[in-house]
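Per your request, structure below.
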């Protein structure tokens, strides 16, 4: 069956929408658009929509991916046009192409983020650079994540592949390349919270944008 890979933006108020609700929004939009989605077999058939990686709630994304399996022949441009007219605000299709090869989720290895916020008073760019160097030199960076089974402690250091800072006046930007799609998955808010302890940053005051989802080898999923 033909498969279409779609790139979309998730922005504005849609950044607060859960991954499950994003999946439902695409499913409803596809039905309204009259797309011939393929469905799984069994007692509870589901549309064959495969997303690359869930976007953390509160995070925007400029290059998110979903693969759609179709039962009929439609060009990627036609799929793109129909979804543009039927998806809710904040979910913005950007491009579409035919896809083949391994399932989308199996390709995911890393994700890149840009976190922007205010440089705390009294903290100079030099202090930030020194703090980042100390932070990355640590063999272990332990965070706590609340789960349905209670609080779980996790060492996020192995999943931080790159972390850099850039300041302009009182504005601070952090670029991160983090592990994604595996047991070592690291969220940007976990990095910000850990940095907050070291540098006095307030994670709540940072706007976070996911700029890319990459394979384990560092390739954009669009190119695979």
């Amino acid at each position: 069956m033909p498969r279409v890979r779609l790139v979309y933006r998730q922005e504005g108020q849609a950044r607060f929408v859960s991954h499950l609700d994003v999946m439902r929004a695409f499913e409803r939009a596809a039905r309204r658009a009259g797309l011939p989605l393929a469905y799984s077999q069994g007692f509870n058939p589901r549309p064959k929509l495969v997303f690359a990686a869930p976007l953390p709630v509160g995070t925007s994304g400029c290059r998110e991916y979903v693969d759609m399996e179709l039962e009929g022949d439609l060009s990627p441009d036609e799929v793109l046009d129909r979804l543009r007219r039927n998806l809710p605000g904040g979910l913005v299709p950007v491009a579409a192409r035919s896809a083949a090869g391994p399932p989308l989720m199996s390709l995911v290895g890393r994700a890149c983020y840009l976190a922007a916020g205010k440089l705390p008073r009294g903290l100079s760019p030099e202090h930030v650079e020194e703090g980042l160097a100390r932070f990355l030199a640590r063999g272990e960076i332990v965070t706590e994540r609340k789960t349905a089974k209670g609080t779980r402690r996790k060492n996020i250091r192995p999943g931080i592949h790159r972390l850099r800072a850039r300041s302009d006046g009182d504005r601070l930007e952090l670029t991160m390349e983090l592990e994604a799609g595996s047991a070592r998955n690291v969220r940007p808010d976990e990095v910000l919270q850990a940095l907050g302890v070291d540098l006095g940053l307030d994670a709540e005051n940072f706007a976070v944008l996911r700029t890319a989802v990459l394979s384990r080898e560092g390739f954009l999923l669009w190119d695979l």
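The mean pLDDT is 92.

Regards,
D.
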